[in-house]
Write a structure and sequence with these properties.
CATH topology of the largest domain: Rossmann fold
Distance between the termini: 37 Å
CATH architecture of the largest domain: 3-Layer(aba) Sandwich
Helix content: 40-55%
Strand content: 5-15%
Bound molecules: 1,4-dihydronicotinamide adenine dinucleotide
Strand order of the largest sheet: 3-2-1-4-5-6-7-8
Radius of gyration: 22 Å
Order of helices and strands: EHEHHEEHEHEEHEHHHHHHEEHHHHH
CATH class of the largest domain: Alpha Beta
Number of strands: 10
Number of domains: 2
Structural class: alpha/beta
Shape: globular
């Protein structure tokens, strides 16, 4: 299959690498010729590192490089059977690109967007044939992260979804199908990991490092929420939170935090700026200034509160038909490396525990943010489990 990729930045370059490695012919286009050169150089360095590690030989490197053609004109993509767009996150710019692109492609070429926060229906609406458009949301770094969220818009024809699924399977990706709603699966269900941790910190219940340690030591998460926010970049994480909040018509469950806003305003962006919730040395290594043994009882309380908020969000995503139980659990374990699927975790904890923990929070705060998902309550009543 001939795969067109538009935008040769972080994501587009990763997508091109994966497609080329799987043996597809790739046409990689960027409006900026320098970006194409940077992408080609970066790929060469990445492949050299894989050779050093003994994961591939020079022949394989040449094969992958030869599979990618760097093209400077949009018209050069005309033979593509699928085009995946990974340009700036701006609806108008994406729509303008899609309008121009469609006139240069065959009628049955799939046009996909890697958007992480825009409506796929809105992007597709720019096309004369919107039924060929869908969202294919990759995770960074694309070659390492197995998960891909596949998002059919309301206009999308199922045949195109099946073709895209087939291609992504051949790339070794794990697919989770999501409804075209804000944040899709991962960026929606993961919100409480950050927001509830921030809330606990803002209330003065615990220090940043205590919250991180609770989730890591007692919950089995690979990174704590504050370490992760520093890693992602507080500016990026805050922007996602704000966009999800407004896209959900200001549902209090997704309310952003002033603590995070202040960090962004102060340019404490995390690893990339040397300071965030933690400080970092020149090699971006965390400088540990506070340590101590974790009080297990407090740690468990912190973990339980964040965990039940995550479970509640995952359950609500099932309730609202955003995705299947399997796909939600797979998205969180493959997309953000959670130690266990949240719905599997709900079963283990029991519906009574989940409902009771949510109701206890609601009784204390009386904020809509802590409302228990209707589905959890219904499942408790009907004595049901997710699996
Ligand atoms: P980036 O800034 O690294 O790369 C974007 C590239 O697109 C640049 O090289 C730019 O020159 C090019 N470009 C801009 N407008 C263009 C146009 N009209 N025609 C052709 N090329 C154009 O951006 P990044 O991080 O790769 O993100 C790309 C898309 O992927 C965005 O929609 C973003 O929301 C989404 N995304 C990003 C993730 C991430 O972690 N960076 C994760 C998942 C999705």
């Amino acid at each position: 299959m001939i795969v067109g990729v538009i935008g040769s930045g972080t994501m587009g370059s990763g997508i091109a690498q994966v497609a080329a490695t799987a043996g597809n012919m790739v046409l990689l286009h960027d409006a900026d010729p320098t970006a194409l050169k940077v992408s080609a150089d970066k790929l060469s360095r990445i492949l050299d590192r894989l050779i050093e590690k003994g994961r591939m030989d020079n022949e394989e490197k040449s094969r992958i490089q030869n599979n990618i053609n760097y093209v400077s004109e949009l018209g050069d993509l005309s033979n593509s059977e699928i085009v995946i767009e990974a340009i700036v996150e701006n609806l108008e710019i994406k729509q303008n690109l899609f309008r121009e692109l469609e006139s240069k492609l065959n009628d049955d070429t799939i046009i996909a967007t890697n958007t992480s926060s825009l409506s796929v229906a809105a992007i597709a609406s720019a096309l004369k044939k919107p039924e060929r458009c869908l969202g294919i949301h990759f995770f960074n770094p694309v070659p390492l992260m197995k998960l891909v969220e596949l998002i059919p818009a309301i206009q999308t024809d199922d045949d195109f979804v099946k073709k895209a699924q087939h291609l992504l399977n051949s790339w070794g990706k794990t697919i989770a199908v999501a409804k075209d709603t804000p944040g899709f699966i991962v960026n929606r269900v993961a919100r409480p990991f950050y927001s509830e941790s921030l809330r606990i910190y803002e209330e003065g219940m615990a220090e940043v490092h205590e919250i991180d340690e609770s989730l890591k030591q007692l919950g089995g998460f690979r990174m704590g929420p504050f370490e992760l926010m520093d890693y992602i970049g507080n500016d990026i994480n805050y922007a996602v939170t704000e966009s999800v909040f407004s896209a959900f018509y200001y549902d209090p469950r997704y309310k952003p935090s002033f603590t995070q806003k202040k960090l962004v305003e102060a340019n404490y962006l995390g690893r990339k700026s040397g300071k965030g919730y933690y400080s970092y040395d020149e090699q971006s290594k965390k400088i540990i200034d506070k340590e101590g043994t974790l009080d297990e009882v407090r740690g468990q309380m912190i973990l339980d509160r964040i965990l039940v908020m995550l479970i509640n969000e995952a359950a609500d995503a099932v309730y609202l038909n955003i995705a299947s139980v399997d796909d939600i659990d797979s998205a969180m374990t493959n997309g953000v490396n959670y130690p266990k699927g949240l719905l599997k975790w709900a079963d283990e904890k029991g519906m009574a525990w989940c409902v009771n923990a949510m109701d206890t929070l609601y009784d204390e705060y009386h904020e809509g943010r802590y409302r228990c998902s209707t589905l959890l309550r219904r499942m408790l009543r009907e004595n049901k489990t997710f699996y």
